Amino acid sequence: MKSSFCNLESQKLHYLEKGKGKTIVLLPSLWITSRPFEEIGEKLSKKYHIIIPDLYKGKSIFTKRATNVSDYLNALEEFLIKLRISKYFLIGISGSGFLVTSFIEQTLNKPIKVLLFSTSFNSAAFPEKRFFFIFKGYLKMFAVNFATLEKIKVILPVLRDAFSFLGTHPKQFISEAFIPIGGLTNKPCVSTTLFISKKDEFFPYKKLLDLNKSIKDLKTVTLNERHIWFFLKKDKFVKEIAGVVG
After folding, report:
1. What is the pLDDT of residues 108-126, one digit of tens each?
2. Assigned CATH for 2-245
3. Which residues are CB-contacts of 24 (< 8 A; sequence separation ≥ 6)?
4. Residues of 26-46 as b/e, b for ≥16 C-beta within 10 angstroms?
5. pTM of the full predicted structure?
6. 3-state secondary structure the chain
7. Bridge partner residues of 92 (DSSP)
8. Cα atoms found within 13 Å of the Cα of residue 174, Cβ hemisphere only
């Protein structure tokens, strides 16, 4: 994928881009940059125009870190304007899913459809005691994904990317654990499909089902997978995206 920069008011934003066709904007999860998603982007670019921005992370250059959700949303809004993107599909993964649900409530430049993976539509699934919640989820995730050599080979590059983020932007990395993200809206203003991972290490499956029952016009798809299954089964991930985007 092509590595480029876009000059925004808040930062010199780095992003990956490739392909032609329908435009898909994929937001990497919190604590992870565009790098681990590059192979997925390559696969998607065979059919779509795929963009993966590094909002306040990765190779992006900024002097003032994001301290609230509005900083992320304003940067994404400006980025879409600068690249003249008005017809697009928006993907949120894990923590970035909460940014996406907040963004579609705020922006006038709404996506055609929203796809959410390994997350919840609103932040009711994300407790106030977030640090312990995250720590416990990561312990479970590591225990599962370091069980076989095949999984270790896939997960290690993701971990290296996270540690690189920590080394490059340590204050921003830490801030992402404490930024109050997401809202409590019970009705998506854009056609939204939520892919729930049945064996998710962070979000209990039954709790997610109960939460999403009260959300009107939300399509849910249950997958018999774990939280970061999309890194282990990239072709399946691309297929699920294509099933919604068309």
Report:
1. 999 999 999 988 776 555 5
2. 3.40.50.1820
3. 44, 48, 49, 50, 51, 88, 89, 90, 91, 241, 245
4. bbbbbbbbbbbbbebbbbbbe
5. 0.90
6. CEEEEEECCCCEEEEEEECCCCEEEEECCCCCCCHHHHHHHHHHCCCCEEEEEECCCCCCECCCCCCCHHHHHHHHHHHHHHCCCCCEEEEEECCHHHHHHHHHHHCCCCCCEEEEECCCCCHHHCCCCHHHHHHHHHHHHHHHHCCCHHHHHHHHHHHHHHHHHHHHCHHHHHHCCCCCCCCCCCCCCCEEEEEEECCCCCCCHHHHHHHHHCCCCEEEEEECCCCCHHHHCHHHHHHHHHHHHC
7. 27, 116
8. 3
- Give the model confidence (pLDDT) of 10-25 as tens digits: 999 999 999 999 999 9
Residue 204's pLDDT is what?
76
The residues near 79 (Cβ < 8 Å, ≥ 6 apart) are 6, 8, 13, 15, 53, 55
Please give the span between the terminal C-alpha atoms of the chain, in angstroms, as a whole number: 22
Tokens describing residue 55: 């909002």
> Tokens 């983020």 correspond to what residue?
165
Taking alpha carbons only, the member of 245, 208, 242 closest to residue 94 is 208
